# Entry
Amino acid sequence: MAKKKAKKAGKKRKPNAAFMKPMNPSAALGAVIGSGAMPRTEVTKKIWAYIKRNGLQDKKNRRNINADDKLKIVFGGKSQVSMFEMTKLVSKHLK
# Structure
């Protein structure tokens, strides 16, 4: 059994090609992260950088994001979303 674990640990994980495919953001999302095509992983990184730079993470419940004017458009008019709901809402703005 120890040999099986050693074999698995030696393999390097390959990134999923679907996540690495460049996607074009909508105009609303482009106002937050930039308008160039980028993979989903990079979109998520840029959104989190924007949230942290502008202090939009809720102080009491850190899983919630308080939307400013730019993010409110991306979040479908909601003023607060959870970080799990955020990825679903952002994916609607990627083509």
Observations:
- DSSP finds six helices and two strands in the chain.
- The chain has one domain: 22-91.
- Residues 27 and 35 are 7 Å apart (CA to CA).
- The domain at 22-91 is CATH 1.10.245.10 (MDM2).
